User: What shape does this take?
Amino acid sequence: MMQSFYNGVGGITSQNFGIDLTANNIANVNTVGFKYSNSEFRDVFYSTVTSQSTNPAQSGGGVGAQSSKIVFSQGTPVASEGEFDVALLGKGFFGVMGSEGVPYYTRNGAFYRDANNHLVDGYGNYVLGTMSPYFTEIPLSDRVSNEFGKDNNGNPIKNGYTISSGIFDLGGVNAQGPISVPKNLYLPPVVTQNIKWSGNLDTGTKTSIVNVDLDPKDITLTKNEDGTITLSGKVDQKDIYSAKEGDRVVFTLTDANGVKKDFEATLDENLNFKSNDLDIAGFDANSLSINSAFLATEQEQSSTQTLKAEIYNADGSKSWLEIKLDRVLPQVGDNIEYKATAQVYDMNGNAIGEESGGSLVFNKNGALLQNNIKSIPNPNGGSINIDLGSTLDPSKPGSGYDGLHILKDKESSIVTKTDGFPEGFFDNYTIGTDGSLIAHFSNGRNGVVGKIALYNFINEEGLMAMGNNLFAASANSGDAYFVVNNGNITPTADFKHGFLEQSNVELSTELTNLITMQKAFDASSKSITTSDEMIRNAINMKK
Assistant: This one.
């Protein structure tokens, strides 16, 4: 009877332990990164009543709490708005370290930037990881310093940080430290040194009537016996390439009295012209002269094509390089020639520096034959190499067409490629799926500031819960380690930026467990009262 009494006490104590765990699970149903625990029980020692029968007669000593097993199943990721909020999808833990220098581990990815620009958790513990070796401190110019404003003490920010490109991996497990996430990040400009244009030029032309001046000295004025005059002469096509039969020659006659009048003649097939007998009534015949003359002729004209490229300068400023291409008319032979003029302009459209000139010549098939505009001095320092493509070389496939070319059956389309990039000011941080902390800049570029470490354990269920959603390594869990595959550290989980992992507590299951343990508690208490009654009856038997 006494044994059953104490068995009941053990049952109450054990079920109370289970109820405590279940209640803790329920209380943390909304705790970020929380992992629920299962209560595990064991039966205790047995007393052998007799071993003479077929099966031994044994009396159990009740029940005891064996362990609380933490279950590290995946919690649901939920979108959040924190700048550094991140959830782990998979196995592993974030590492954090307090002021005492002891590492702890957590699944709570609600991180923040502290006053010293370190990445910390909600309790001020440093988030552990590896800083990029390409992340360096630099002095800032006065202009850039003004862009960043002042620090919390009202002082100008004279120093900043920059990132150069490069690949790096996490250090060793014991080499992880605090991660800096400053805002005073700056990418200096990379100066433009090379510009390449390629594509098809527009060869289209248009015609318009133009007036080409003629020298009055080349025109003969003949006075006829009837008092009229005749004007005659010849136009040389060397001087006016577009001259042709039917073009009009317009003369302006004047005399000493200031009388003026226009007369016309037309070119014949030999480009000669001769007016009709012209009546000069009203003129002073003795002072009559040709004041001016011009040929009205239809000429082929080409529109100016402009190549433009933005230039990035060492001081952070920008400028423009423009190359204007004017087709040379009339075309001589089968080749097509362009006059090229290169000029650098500031962002207000003002020409700066010296103008450079040259020419481009293409053959009848559109291949580049000649190019003598190869570079131009940059007024802001250095020079700019201009690549318009290789000239035609029959021994080199593709030459003559790898830059600018002329193909009459294709639309005009020009592609511009430049090196260099503008200065960049810090914009925002993102976290990559591998834990990389990526800084984004105003110029569209980005760089990895550091990487957040992801720790694993041989037996994660052996971790010791320390409160504040933190765990500590124990003899049962083993030491923290990184998973290495082919010599490279391989994450066992994806980092999901902008999300937080919710508690993995299943409320319906926990409420069911609570009811079950409550019934077991009630039943154990019943065994105590039953044993008590039996003892009382036994005592009463003596009376």
Observations:
- The radius of gyration is 47 Å.
- The chain has four domains: 2-73+505-542, 77-186+443-501, 194-205+302-418, 208-300.
